[in-house]
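Thread: Newbie trying to understand structure tokens

Hi all, I'm a second-year student working on a class project, and my supervisor (Dr. K.) asked me to get a predicted structure for one chain before our next meeting. I've only ever worked with sequences, so writing a 3D structure as a token string is new to me. If someone could post the tokens and maybe explain what I'm looking at, I'd be very grateful. Here's the chain:
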Amino acid sequence: MENVLPYKWLLALDILKRQYDVLPSQRLLASYTEDMEKMPTFEIHLFGQIGYMTIDPKNIERPDRGLSSSDSVVDLQPAFFRFTLVTTTALIFGEPASGLTSADHETFAESFDYASMISAIRLRLADLEWVYKPKAFRKACQVVKEYASHFVDEALKSRVGDELSPRTESEALIQDLYAELQDPELVRDQLVHVLIAGRDTTVCLMSWAVFLLVRHPAKLARLKQEIQSTLPNRERLIRSQLQKMTYLRAVLNESRWP
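---
Reply by user tm_fold:
Sure, no problem. This is what the structure looks like when written as tokens:
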């Protein structure tokens, strides 16, 4: 490819800094608008690796024209991240027994996103990750720890002596971990690890599924038909209905191996 995003610093570190500066505002794509007006498709060289960005209609197939009134690229990943964070948190922690407000949940979500973003940047620094540990990052990590600790504490309160008496499936998971680890902080850390892994892998699967479905309209139509026939009144989905969606399961299985 002839078009390459220009850079000035060694290993294109100025591109990395540019990405970092706009990440908090979630305007990464918008920051490349001027470049895209000159080059609809171009390569990005960073740390010896090559990536691509494009707004060329030949290289883009939009999954839903209703998502935007313009002809710009539609990025579904922010919505996927928000959705999977909510569902994974509910699966692992369940509903709070007491002591948390909607503002607490919102603060946790923002802190989790910020901590994940900074962790990704520090990961790129490899052995030099220790040089970049901003105060806001440490604060966000503390918020995540306190949020997880709340559910660990609530689950352990329901024990009767040394006997386990979970009130929910989420508490059963926490109590089983405690029975093995015998340390509330280790249990908390394990839950956060599961949350991180569950969110990112699910987002990746959803992204690939949508990416492939828009390129196979017949498969997309068949999947839509199965969902509509299973939920004709758009009622709340339950596990027994989900198990009947064999084509949906096949689509997700195929999307794991794009």
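A couple of things are worth pointing out once you decode it. The first strand starts at residue 41 and ends at 46. Confidence is low (pLDDT under 50) at residues 61-70. Feel free to ask follow-ups in this thread.
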